[in-house]
Specification:
The protein has helices at about 5-15, 30-40, 60-70, 85-90, 95-110, 130-140, 145-150, 155-160, 190-205, 230-235, 235-245, 270-275; strands at about 20-25, 45-50, 75-80, 115-120, 210-215, 220-225, 250-255. It is α/β, with parallel strands linked by helices. The longest helix has 16 residues, at about 190-205. The termini are far apart.
Length: about 280
């Protein structure tokens, strides 16, 4: 038996022993696998909840709702209020902690969810990254069944493919706030600007591992895999015009290419951007 098959059995065992639970759902590969297997093992004892937040692209929200509908997963769409939290808006390295706090608050405010075990789709690769949201949810009683079963990101994809889940090869899709350089305040307008910019790139055929990073409001840093550089350059005029229409003044292509979490390497404040 392959290692990922054995780990899937472990995941099934973990979930079958679980008390009634609520899954913090995003529609990505990790939470989709956890939702689908949880539905099989727990039935109606598993509910899912997704944050209807300005930092979640509308396309991702629609996709997550559609996945839940197709797979018979009972999903709650919960408005969250992290933008009311000055600590979140400040956008330092702990921003994700305040976002996850807001999601847990929204879940615990619902009588039908308040007493349920909280689950997150965290795999073993996630455990070594800078993810303050994990610490917050763990402190508030969350469990990470994928990690408990020893499933890595690659194994999540292998298992998802074997189970016929359409999310098996879905690219990672972090929240829109992750596109902002640390120190650039999180605002509803700024998140909408990034969403418009990335929608434009999608309309030009640039899907998947594509990011528009906001380095201070005026400067957009586009990240795509190096093999897609020519595609961006071929559409240069439309890309520049579209991102300027979205509100950026300067449009750049990052020659390092796409890498997840690249803002963790960049500690630029609004003030330091102005000084450069």
């Amino acid at each position: 038996m392959a290692a990922h098959d054995r780990k899937l059995l472990d995941l099934r065992r973990i979930l079958s022993d679980m008390p009634p639970a609520v899954l913090a759902f995003s529609g990505g590969a990790d939470s989709a696998l956890l939702a689908a297997v949880g539905r099989e093992e727990m039935g109606p004892a598993l509910l899912a909840a997704i944050a209807d937040s300005p930092s979640l692209p509308r396309r991702e929200l629609r996709s997550a709702v559609a996945f839940a509908d197709r797979h018979g997963i009972e999903l709650r769409v919960l408005p969250t209020d992290e933008l009311e939290d000055e600590r979140y808006r400040r956008n330092d390295r702990d921003r994700c902690a305040f976002c996850k706090d807001a999601l847990v608050d929204a879940i615990r405010a619902r009588p039908d969810l308040a007493e349920r075990q909280l689950l997150l789709g965290v795999n073993t690769d996630d455990l070594g990254d800078h993810r303050p949201g994990q610490a917050v949810t763990r402190a508030r009683g969350a469990r990470f069944p994928l990690a408990e079963a020893g499933l890595s990101k690659d194994e999540v994809r292998l298992v998802s493919r074997a189970l016929g889940l359409e999310t098996w090869d879905k690219p990672a899709a972090a929240c829109l706030a992750s596109r902002l350089a640390y120190g650039v305040p999180v605002t509803r307008e700024g998140l909408a600007r990034i969403e418009r910019a990335e929608e434009l790139l999608s309309e030009l055929g640039l899907h998947g591992d594509v990011r528009v990073r906001d380095q201070g409001g005026a400067l957009a840093r586009i990240e795509v895999p190096p093999e897609r550089f020519d595609d961006v350059l071929a559409a240069r005029d439309r890309v520049v015009a579209g991102l300027r229409d979205a509100g950026f003044r300067y449009v750049t292509l990052d020659l390092d290419g796409f890498r997840s979490g690249s803002q963790n390497l960049v500690f630029l404040s609004v003030g330091s951007m102005g000084a450069r």
